[in-house]
């Protein structure tokens, strides 16, 4: 029976989009978590029957599992080929340990996770994980760094794309909301595991988050000063907007009625209403 060795990344991508955990998909097709991880890492070839079974559980055509699909926000106003654009989300180039850590931290929480669970999900030995990552804390710090650097670069790009302060603010909110839908698991870990991060990494990550919030605050204050926003509390409202975006990973699903792009634009519109922008601005 023909086998497919290169389907792993596409299977992982489709599973993440569907909202299924590695453990849930493994259980559905009757294999261990380690075997499922090995499939996604391209270490186990898939027969046509197994590929079809996985596709059925992920509710996608089997052909979609033969190669990863472009990760671009639907209905985005830029061509998918624009890989440098802040609305474009390419597959992350992560080592198996980091991919496994995302899965385990999301499902079990940092304190419920162990290096043995990460090793099992990565289809590796515990010693193999320690060879590349000296501790569970190092895995968490690495994921936090990746998340904040990626998010910050997108927010800076969105800010530069805007003109007037209100437009800059709206685009940055869209970028933040889009990140929290397109990179749900990373954003979820970043939002929920800050208390688990130890020094000196904690201070560095806190500073990066504060820098992002300061950028959003500055645009909100500038839009208030030029009369576009009429809220009496632009900084407090900007923080409420950011918190609203950070809650997206708790409920957003790629299989829901709205695409990531639609949700992000809706949140940008909500932010203008919260800033008490006049109707002419909200409708622009």
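Sequence proposed for the structure above (284 residues):
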């Amino acid at each position: 029976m023909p086998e497919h060795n290169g389907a792993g990344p596409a299977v992982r991508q489709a599973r993440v989009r569907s909202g299924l955990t590695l453990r849930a998909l493994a259980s559905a097709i009757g294999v261990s978590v380690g075997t499922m991880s090995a499939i996604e890492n391209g270490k186990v070839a898939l027969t046509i029957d197994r590929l079809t079974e996985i596709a059925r559980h992920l509710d996608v055509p089997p052909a979609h599992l033969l190669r990863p699909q472009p990760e671009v926000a639907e209905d985005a106003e830029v061509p998918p080929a624009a890989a440098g654009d802040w609305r474009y989300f390419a597959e992350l180039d992560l080592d198996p340990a980091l991919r496994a850590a995302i899965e385990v931290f999301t499902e079990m929480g940092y304190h419920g996770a162990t290096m043995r669970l990460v090793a099992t999900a990565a289809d590796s030995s515990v010693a193999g994980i320690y060879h590349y990552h000296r501790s569970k804390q190092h895995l968490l710090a690495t994921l936090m760094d990746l998340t904040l650097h990626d998010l910050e670069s997108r927010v800076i790009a969105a800010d530069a794309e805007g003109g007037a302060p209100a437009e800059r603010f709206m685009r940055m909110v869209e970028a933040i909301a889009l990140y929290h839908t397109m990179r749900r698991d990373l954003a979820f870990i970043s939002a929920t595991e800050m208390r688990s991060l130890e020094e000196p990494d904690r201070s560095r990550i806190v500073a990066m988050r504060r820098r992002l919030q300061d950028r959003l605050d500055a645009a909100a204050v500038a839009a208030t000063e030029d009369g576009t926003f009429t809220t009496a509390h632009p900084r407090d409202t900007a923080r409420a907007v950011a918190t609203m975006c950070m809650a997206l990973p708790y409920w957003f699903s790629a299989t829901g009625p709205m695409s990531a792009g639609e949700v992000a634009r809706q949140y940008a519109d909500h932010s203008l209403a919260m800033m008490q922008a006049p109707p002419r601005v909200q409708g622009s």
